[in-house]
Amino acid sequence: MDDLLAKPFGRKDLLALLARFSPSPGEASANGSAECAEREASSLDPEPIETLRKLDPEGQRQLVQRTITKFADYGDELMAILSDAVDRGDSGEVARITHSLKSSSASLGARDLSGLCADLERLASGGSLPADIDANLTAVKTAHRAARRDLLALLKGG
Asked: pTM for this one?
């Protein structure tokens, strides 16, 4: 019974289960069920973006655009490195990468991603990876895709 979610369960557990049964972005059905699942995984807090906008009110330095673009580009690289570290069982590297992702996502208002990274950082800092590391990694990847999508949408929408 791979689709059983026993009580008590947390948001991370639910996200991991949803990610397992949602089609990848290329396989999304016509009704957009994968997009709906990912949209639930993201809750951007607008305050950090507004703070960045206030630091560059005229937009001359393109602070918001540059910060989001760096997050998107660097975040993709970090996700690949994180997957590799999990595959190798390298808890120190997992803790280091999740610390970095936690901080950068929080600075852009990606609360869900930041929280999941904080949880995984704490678990990995103990010197070993948790038994459910694959579920943790899936939840982080899902939250990262959602945060990246939503942040890039902010650039297109203003």
From this structure: 0.71
pLDDT, one tens digit per residue, over 130-140 is 999 999 999 99
What's the topology of domain 11-157?
Four Helix Bundle (Hemerythrin (Met), subunit A) (1.20.120)
Tokens read off for 4: 């059983």
Question: Read out DSSP for 54-110?
Answer: HHSTT-TT-HHHHHHHHHHHHHHHHHHHHHHHHHHT-HHHHHHHHHHHHHHHHHTTB
Contact 147, 42 (CB under 8 A): yes
Nearest CA-CA partner of 122 in 83, 93, 82, 95 = 95
DSSP-based three-state secondary structure for 127: coil
pLDDT number for residue 10: 65
- Residue with token string 């999740």: 98
Q: What is the pLDDT of residue 6?
A: 64
Banded pLDDT at 1 (limits 50, 70, 90): very low
| CA gap 92, 10 in Å, rounded | 25
